[in-house]
Amino acid sequence: MKNKALNKIGLLIFIILCSFYSNSQIKVKPEQKKCNEKQVARKGQRFADFECGKSSDIVDCNEKLDMEEGSSTIFSKGTGEPFTGTCETCHNNGILERKVNFVNGKQNGSDTTFYETGCKMVIRNHIQGVENGKWTFYHDTIVEIVAWEQNYFAGQKEGLQIFFTPKGDTTLMENYKAGVLHGIKKKYYPYSKIKTQVNYKNGLMDGEFLNYNYDGAVIEKLNYTEGKKNGECTYFYSNGKLLQTENWLMDNKNGEFKSFYLQGTLQNLETWKTGSGKEEEYFSFDIYECSNMDAAKKVSEKLSNKVPSKKIIEELGSTLNINLLEERLIVQNERPYLKGRKLNRGANEIYEYKDKFYVVLGIDRQVVAKKEVKEGVFEEYFPNQKMKRAAVYKNDVLIEEHIFDEFGNETKTFGGSANKKSEDDKLPEKGKKKMKKGNKK
Questions:
Q1: Which residues sit opposite 54 in a β-bridge?
Q2: What would you measure as the largest C-alpha separation in the chain, in angstroms?
Q3: pTM
Q4: Is the pLDDT confidence value at 192 over 90?
Q5: Is pLDDT above 50 for 204?
Q6: What Rg do the C-alpha atoms of the chain give, in angstroms?
Q7: CA angle at residue 123 from 119 to 128, to 5 degrees?
Q8: Which of 87, 124, 130 is nearest to 106 (CA)?
Q9: According to the model, what pLDDT value does residue 282 have?
C-alpha cells in the first residue's frame, strides 16, 4: 500500500514536537523579532499567494512522490524510480511548509520545515537518508525559540544534545558518542536549576552522581563504575545534614552502612562484606527455642505430626516458655550455626546450647549465590541514643544478639549472657572490655 510522501516525511516531526510548544506560554519581548509576518499579511485575503509551484524544477511532494510501506525510499509516481530532485509542500494559507532534496530516493542535505505561521519548525541534515549533522527544533511561537538541538554522525547521536522550555530554560543536557551516552548528563528543575548530574562512559554511569533539591543543596552523592555502585555513597536531609552513608563494591554491599537521625545522632549501623558469589545450599526452616528437654521433645513430636507452627506456639509457647525464632539459626560447636549442617526435611534432632534446647523443622532446600553477607556488628538506637538492638554476624550467621526496650531493659538475648548493664553498652569487641554505664561519650 502506498502513502503520500508528505505524511511519511512529516509525521514523526509533528508527533515529537506536539509536547513542546504552546503560544500561550510565550510573552514576546519588544526587542524580539516576530517570525509570523507572512501569516499576518495573509489574514483577510480571499485567495492566498502560494509560495509553492513557482519553479518547474521542484515537484509537489504529495502529488508526484510515493513511499512504499516499510521502505524509507521515495519513488517518483511517474517513473516508479527512486526520486532525485527537490519537492515542496505548502500550508493552506500558501506559506511554504517544507522543501526537501533527494538523491536516489533518499533525503540529502539540509532542509527546513515551517509552521503555518511561517516560523521555523525544524532544520534537519541528512546524507543519503541518514541523519548527519545538527538538527534544530523550534517551539510553535511567533518568535523563534529553540525546543532542542541534537547532533548526529552517520545516523547516530554524537556530541551535545540539549533541550529547552518555550521560555528558554534548559531542561536536559547530555552527551553522546556513537549513539550511546558518553560524558556529562544534566537534568534541570524549572528556571534551569540543576537537578541531577552524572558522568557516562560508553553508555554506563561511571563516576560521581549528584542529586540536588530545588534549593540547590546536594541530597545524594553516589559513585559508579561501569554502571554499578562502587565506593562510598552518601545521602543528606534537605537541610544538608547527613542522612545515610553506604559502601559498595560493584553493586554489592561491602563495609559499613550507617543511617542518622535528623539531629545527627546514629540510628543504624550495619556491617557487610562481599561474598564469594558461588552457589551454596540453604534450607528454609523454623527454629524453636525451648527452656528444657521435655519441652523440646513435645515440640519435636508435634512437628513430626505436622502440626502448624502457629498452633504449636499457641498451645505450648506460654506454658513451656517456647519461642519461634525469627533468625534462621541452629547451634553447633558452642555457637549458633547453620551453614554446613546437613538438614533433613521435617523435624531434625534436638540441640542443646547454653541451657536451652533447639528444635529445627526443615521446610525446603534452596541453592543461592551469596553476593553479599552480614559480617560484623549490627546496631540500632532509639532517638535518645539508648541501645535498641546489638548483634554480631559471622558470614551471614547471627552469633549474638541483645534487644532492649526504650527504658533500657534487655528483652531478648541470643548467643550470649544477658547484659545486666546499661543498654548503652555495646557488644564487647575482641581484646576490649565493655564500657561501664555512664562512660560512653
A1: none
A2: 107
A3: 0.70
A4: yes
A5: yes
A6: 36
A7: 145
A8: 130
A9: 64
Q: Give me the mean pLDDT over the 415-422 stretch.
A: 58
Cα 175 versus chain centre, distance: 19
User: And the C-alpha cell for 269?
Assistant: 549501623
CB 233 within 8 A of CB 248: yes
| 3-class secondary-structure state, position 421 | coil
Residue 332 has φ and ψ, to the nearest 5°, of: -160, 140
On the 0-12 / 13-18 / 19+ scale of CB atoms within 10 A, 164 is buried
| Angstrom distance (rounded) from CA 24 to CA 19 | 14
The pLDDT tens digits for 291-326 are 899 999 999 898 888 888 888 888 888 878 888 875
Only one residue has cell 550455626, namely 337
Q: How many residues make up the chain in this entry?
A: 441
Distance CA 26, CA 20 (A): 12
Which set of grid coordinates corresponds to residue 292?
528444657
Nearest by Cα to 65 from 3, 14, 125, 107: 3
Highest mean pLDDT: which of 16-20, 195-199, 297-301?
195-199
**pLDDT tens per residue across span 240-296:** 999 999 999 999 999 999 999 999 999 999 999 988 777 766 667 788 888 899 999
- What does the buried/exposed string (b/e) look like for 310-343 if buried means 16 or more CB atoms within 10 Å of the residue's CB? eebeeebbeeeebeebeebbbbeeebbbbeeeeb
Nearest by Cα to 384 from 270, 257, 267: 267
Question: Can you count the helices (H) and strands (E) in the chain?
Answer: 6, 38
* CA dist 358 → 286, 302, 344, 398 (Å): 10, 14, 15, 15
Give the number of C-alpha atoms closer than 13 A to the C-alpha of residue 392, restricted to the C-beta side. 15
Q: What's the confidence (pLDDT) of residue 266?
A: 97
Q: Write out the three cell numbers for 368.
A: 543461592
Nearest CA among 312, 313, 316 for reference residue 303: 312
User: What gap in Å lies between CA 261 and CA 273, rounded to an integer?
Assistant: 25
Find the DSSP H helices in 254-327. 293-304, 309-312, 318-320
| 8 Å CB contact between 325 and 287 | yes
For 176, the 3-state DSSP assignment is strand
